[in-house]
Design a protein that fits this description.
By secondary structure, the protein is of the alpha+beta class. The chain contains two helices and seven strands. It has helices at about 1-5, 55-65, and strands at about 10-15, 20, 30-35, 45-50, 70-75, 80-85, 90-95.
């Protein structure tokens, strides 16, 4: 629920424990996997999710869907803008827009 609301896209379970983000044709999308052996972390790799043109809306959806804002929306120079948040499980992610 967190990712479908924040990213504003359909996420469907393709296989047991594997949910695929909405995409068409051969586009790169992404997937979420459930593995009870892996623990959420704020200290690992920082994955960026594209929320092109709707960063403010995406950040506003974070807390209402069980997440937490770590760094509010800010400029990353010529690369656009981002916000760093924790998802509903406690994983640190970045929301990015031009």
């Amino acid at each position: 629920m967190f990712y479908s609301k924040v990213l504003n896209c359909e996420i469907r379970e393709e296989f047991e424990g594997v949910a695929v983000l909405q995409h068409s044709n051969d586009e790169v999308a992404g997937c979420l996997t459930l593995d009870k052996r892996i623990k959420p972390t704020q200290d690992g790799v920082l994955i960026y999710y594209n929320v092109s043109g709707r960063l403010t809306e995406a950040v506003e959806a974070v807390t209402g869907n069980g997440g937490k804002i770590v760094q509010a929306q800010h400029s990353i120079g010529p690369f656009g803008f981002r916000a760093i948040v924790l998802d509903s499980e406690g994983n640190r992610i970045a929301l990015h827009s031009d």
